[in-house]
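User: Thanks for the earlier help. One more: Signal recognition particle receptor subunit beta. Can you show the sequence and predicted structure together?

Assistant: Of course, both are below.
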Amino acid sequence: MDISTFIWTIFAILAIAIAVTVLNFLGNRTKKDTFLLLGLSDSGKTSLFLKLRYGSLVQTHTSMKENEGHFIINDNGIPLVKNPIHVVDVPGHEKLRFKFSDFIPITRGIIFVIDSSTCAKNSRQIAEYLYDIFAHKNVKNIPTLIACNMSDMITALPPERIRTILENEINRLRITRTSGLDHQDSVDDVEFLGYESEDFKFEHLENDVVFEKCSVKEGEINVIKEWIVDTFQGIK
Ligand SMILES: Nc1nc2c(ncn2[C@@H]2O[C@H](COP(=O)(O)OP(=O)(O)OP(=O)(O)O)[C@@H](O)[C@H]2O)c(=O)[nH]1
Ligand SMILES: [Mg+2]
């Protein structure tokens, strides 16, 4: 091999190595392996995060910042999926919840946690938060599980009832939002959810939205684990 062929070979190897490194870096940055836990304060997000991560029920306090971690979803220690999943619990406090949008580019699925026992009373607040999520321009197509938590409470409503209450509330909300009555943005900036000619239904969204009941306190969260695993593996 003469010297110029040798130099060109080294140059080609270096170029390929750099290209592979850059592609890997970009690939990792856009890897969508994150599941977001969103919802109002006291709905049970941190309890769920800790239960998923450590399998135990831990006493929690109002969160002032996100909890996040990479861990393997398991059933009593038996892994349900090979790779660790990134889970982020975003505080429900009104002034902190906007942080959810930082994670949207890497989000595979959203778990919106609701306290089923206070849902009727808080329906307006819940609908406002859901509206902000679904109206976000990059949330379209992100599968969403509405986890109707606290099903152990005697006053808990069933998921189908919760769905109807929230559909009615979002229906009312989209009229006020798009007429600009209680929103500071110009009407053009506000996304209209659903079909203009029909009452709002979750099935009108581009996102796949499912409602399931659960109780973190009673350890009844299998349906959440299964949904995470299926969504992570691209089944849902
Ligand atoms: N009865 C009952 N209580 C629950 C359940 N899940 C959580 N809790 C309780 O609800 C309270 C609030 O739970 P957290 O997990 O701290 O709520 P959070 O959604 O993280 O609230 P923020 O951090 O303020 O956004 C705690 O006292 C939990 O023990 C459940 O399934 N049933
Ligand atoms: Mg919390």
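User: Great, one quick takeaway?

Assistant: The pocket of guanosine-5'-triphosphate (ligand 1) is lined by residues 39, 41-47, 60, 62-63, 91-92, 149-150, 152-153, 215-217 (CB under 6 Å).
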